[in-house]
Amino acid sequence: xxxxxxxxxxxxxxxxxxxxxxxxxxxxxxxxxxxxxxxxxxxxxxxxxxxxxxxxxxxxxxxxxxxxxxxxxxxxxxxxxxxxxxxxxxxxxxxxxxxxxxxxxxxxxxxxxxxxxxxxxxxxxxxxxxxxxxxxxxxxxxxxxxxxxxxxxxxxxxxxxxxxxxxxxxxxxxxxxxxxxxxxxxxxxxxxxxxxxxxxxxxxxxxxxxxxxxxxxxxxxxxxxxxxxxxxxxxxxxxxxxxxxxxxxxxxxxxxxxxxxxxxxxxxxxxxxxxxxxxxxxxxxxxxxxxxxxxxxxxxxxxxxxxxxxxxxxxxxxxxxxxxxxxxxxxxxxxxxxxxxxxxxxxxxxxxxxxxxxxxxxxxxxxxxxxxxxxxxxxxxxxxxxxxxxxxxxxxxxxxxxxxxxxxxxxxxxxxxxxxxxxxxxxxxxxxxxxxxxxxxxxxxxxxxxxxxxx
Length: 455
Fold this sequence. Notes:
Blueprint: E1 3-8, H1 12-23, E2 28-31, H2 38-43, H3 45-64, H4 78-103, E3 106-108, E4 112-114, E5 119-122, E6 125-134, E7 138-140, H5 154-157, E8 166-170, H6 174-185, E9 189-193, H7 205-217, E10 221-223, E11 228-234, E12 237-242, E13 247-250, E14 252-255, E15 259-261, H8 268-271, E16 294-296, H9 307-322, E17 336-338, E18 344-348, H10 351-354, E19 360-367, H11 370-375, E20 381-388, E21 394-400, H12 404-416, H13 421-425, E22 446-448
Parallel strand pairs: 1-2, 1-6, 2-3, 6-16, 8-9, 8-14, 9-10
Antiparallel strand pairs: 4-5, 5-6, 7-15, 11-12, 12-13, 17-18, 18-21, 19-20, 19-22, 20-21
Helix pairs in contact: 1-4, 1-9, 3-4, 3-6
């Protein structure tokens, strides 16, 4: 064999797996046909957070007046922002390449596809490998409605030549609510169209309700229980027709309606790799596919599509195969954040999920952050703990508000260690902070459980 391990995909999962395996002494090849670092670095979480930060600066300038500063937001230069973003992404691309080169992996700037279980076509050349990893990630999908060709997807949003003045975003997941905050914060008339009663399906109900209020307070026009039916090009922009018989006139229509695994054209059928109903690669707990020597990691498996999960999976597989240290990755208590404005962060079970099989005590607090007592901005922070009534173990922690992702990272450590509500209660808070509210929650809001249900 030419390689002990060949990795298809140079994103978070693929690069980590290739780098660690090479560090263990394996002969490693890795192919990437688009850009090193994958979705997250190039057209995902990293550039998205830069855009969110840019949107927040305008509000910060307005808020400064509450503290005595003679400040006001001026005109925003979209092209300058995109240029600065592109420069930083280019730097990160170089880091990913150097990490692989320094580890001793052989880099192929080419598309790779399987010929059989041990043979690949890599940019027209044939190579063989004892073990193969599929880490090709996913791609955004749109809707099949009349005029869909007039809409963009999230990949396109990072390269818009100019900032649109009127935007319609279709969807209400991570990408939709984050870009709603970006465009509204940069001054665009922003519409959010979604078929559910509340945004962020699958998140805790209190967070969903709180986010809907926050989006509206930030000027986002919400269209719940609504789906788009057609898009038409007009002389002045786009006309988006909705299921409630109304129309929205905008400059940009943005599909944020889901993602699909990148499995087409990889030769997976020829190699015997089984796929799921949505085209995702099916894997077991050891990341193995239906072919014993072929593995899959990250978003291409469509299990829990988060960059840190993909990175952890890549590291675990490399240690297992070449580091003499077999281990997996638990997806049971994975913290996550939504960089909406304000952001959301969560770890563990929602109230609804926790209450299906047990009685739980629920603690909720809502308050105006200290900063906005002076700015006058209408913004609430929401914090919530879901606690097992029988064991006192904290099953879920949820927050909507400024600094929520930074705060939740620490709570995730406590929850993975099995912290109880009593552990939270006997922890001294840091004052004055928002975070201290998590350790001063004493008044129970409600009880939920079988026969009671979440309220």
